[in-house]
Design goal:
This protein is an alpha+beta fold. The chain has two domains: 352 residues, Na+/H+ antiporter like fold (Up-down Bundle); 77 residues, Alpha-Beta Plaits. Helices cover 64% and strands 6% of the residues. The chain has 20 helices and seven strands. Strands 5-4-6-3-7 form a five-stranded antiparallel beta sheet, with helices on one face. It has a two-stranded antiparallel sheet with strand order 1-2. Helix 3 packs across helix 11, helix 9 packs parallel to helix 17 and helix 15 packs across helix 18. It is globular and about 80 Å long.
């Protein structure tokens, strides 16, 4: 009966979590916050007992691998190319500055809340919270279906997808100091960081290209569903091998996913659907497990509660803005409003909680205190920042409504031509309002028009109107994109 009971409880948790996700969408709250809440409710007073730190860490590792890989697959090179430099600076220097600023604040604050804490332990507590959470950022930005100006969305996604290695290295280094001799070899630490980043990036790119080759060369078209299993195996192999080679596995899987997502592979649409569903499943399982793992009574202890409240709001209002403005200072393409928004969307989520489990599994003194503070700070971040992602963008004038796809197409993988959806505007019709007057690049064809809830095939003399949606096929999509941008058209959707 034990196995049956386990499955029953698991099914109940997943069902309640899905309902919570639906409620979150209606309320405008992050779904991940409610997943945590469901886990906390079911774990209260050991209604469902889950206290294995090792297993929780393992779940976190598996989930983060897939979340980062899937996030990389959904990110286009063309989108992140303009923001690589600021993204890398924020993912490295930004994390370090946040850890130093918050760690110093914790050390100075500790006596006022009657807590004895060393500066190294204060830095460890800060380091666990120093990276933004990819699961939270990817989930919220894509659920909102809200466009962000000045390349903010790819910047934030690049930062959150690539800043975990820096935070991880800081956590591991500080745990080693606290459990070892207490001496710091900074040259060794810096060397370890560069090895982790270089090896992780190199192997991530290499395994990404190898994954593309394997996916396109291994013929299992008799059972296409196996391609999803194959891609999953490649993602886990990338993480494991990179970790064994002393590189950062999390960076490797993100870059591998980025490579896979930007090269042509078989059954792309099917693979995308599978990974979207699987990512959501792992996010739910991860946040439920973390919610079950925490003890609510310990969160409400005055020493934990007061410290978490102070640190949470200090990080949101002081530490994150300072580190963000310093990191973005050399990059003049971002306005003050864009920098302000980037500083606000520094969400904390599953990653800090997972990092906070690491001191527990390595028997660091006061590890439980670190975990509880980090957990409560994460909740504060999701409540304060997660619920205001959309409204803050609107208030700063940085948002726009993302165009919704009108033509629902599934393009076979062997077709080399690319389809795009273009919305006609007044500037496009300056040279004439018929289809033949629109000077599109060679090897480009308008195959269908959508107007007034009707679809029709156009001819050369078909009159176009502002607001018409055009289904365009081209053998050179980059040339097409440049051409329509020159026409003053922003509403274009690549399929």
């Amino acid at each position: 009966m034990l196995n049956e009971n386990f499955l029953l409880v698991g099914a109940l948790l997943l069902f309640v979590a899905v309902l919570a996700g639906k409620a979150a969408y209606r309320l405008g709250a992050p779904a991940l916050l409610l997943f945590l809440g469901v886990g906390m409710v079911f774990g209260y007073n050991d209604f469902i007992s889950f206290d294995s730190a090792v297993f929780a860490e393992f779940i976190g590792m598996i989930a983060l691998c897939i979340i980062l890989f899937s996030g990389g697959m959904d990110t286009k090179f063309s989108e992140i190319r303009p923001v690589i430099a600021p993204g890398v600076v924020m993912a490295t220097l930004g994390v370090t500055l946040t850890a130093l600023i918050v760690g110093s604040f914790i050390y100075l604050l500790a006596p006022f809340v009657d807590i004895k804490i060393s500066y190294t332990l204060a830095l460890l507590l800060a380091a666990t919270m120093s990276s933004t959470d990819s699961a939270s950022v990817f989930s919220i930005l894509r659920t909102k279906k809200q466009g962000l100006r000045q390349n903010l969305r790819p910047l934030l996604e690049l930062e959150s997808g690539s800043n975990d290695p820096m935070a991880y290295i800081l956590v591991v280094m500080l745990v080693g100091i606290l459990t070892g001799t207490g001496e710091v070899n900074w040259f060794e630490a810096i060397g370890t960081f560069f090895v982790q980043m270089v090896v992780g990036a190199a192997l991530g790119y290499g395994f990404g290209r190898a994954t593309v080759w394997v996916m396109n060369r291994i013929n299992i078209r008799s059972n296409p569903s196996l391609y999803s299993v194959l891609l999953l195996a490649c993602a886990f192999f990338t993480f494991s091998f990179t970790t064994m080679a002393y590189g950062n596995g999390y960076l490797a899987v993100y870059i591998a996913g980025l490579v896979v997502g930007n090269f042509r592979i078989v059954y792309r649409n099917m693979l995308g659907t599978f990974f979207d569903s699987f990512t959501w499943l792992l996010q739910i399982v991860l946040f439920l497990a973390l919610g079950l793992f925490v003890d609510i009574d310990e969160l409400l202890n005055p020493d934990v509660f007061l410290m978490a409240i102070a640190v949470g709001f200090f990080m949101i209002l002081v530490a994150r803005p300072i580190s963000t403005f310093i990191c973005m200072a050399p990059f003049r393409s971002f306005s003050f409003k864009a920098r302000t928004y980037a500083s606000w969307v520094g969400l904390r989520g599953a990653v800090p909680i997972i990092f906070a489990i690491y001191p527990i599994t390595h028997d660091v003194a006061n590890a439980d205190y670190i975990f509880n503070v980090v957990f409560l700070v994460t909740i504060i971040s999701l409540v304060v920042q997660g619920t205001t992602v959309s409204s803050m963008a609107n208030w700063l004038g940085l948002s726009y409504a993302e165009p919704q796809q009108t033509f629902k197409l599934t393009v076979p993988d062997h077709i080399r031509s690319e389809f795009s959806e273009i919305e006609v505007n007044a500037s496009m019709l300056k040279g004439g309002d018929t289809l033949k007057d629109i000077r599109l690049p060679g090897h480009t064809l308008v195959v269908m028009v959508y107007r007034n809830e009707k679809y029709f095939v156009p001819k050369g003399l078909t009159q176009l109107l502002p607001g018409d949606k055009l289904l365009v096929v081209s053998d050179n999509n980059d040339e097409l994109l440049q051409k329509v941008k020159d026409m003053g058209i922003d509403n274009i959707i690549k399929m």
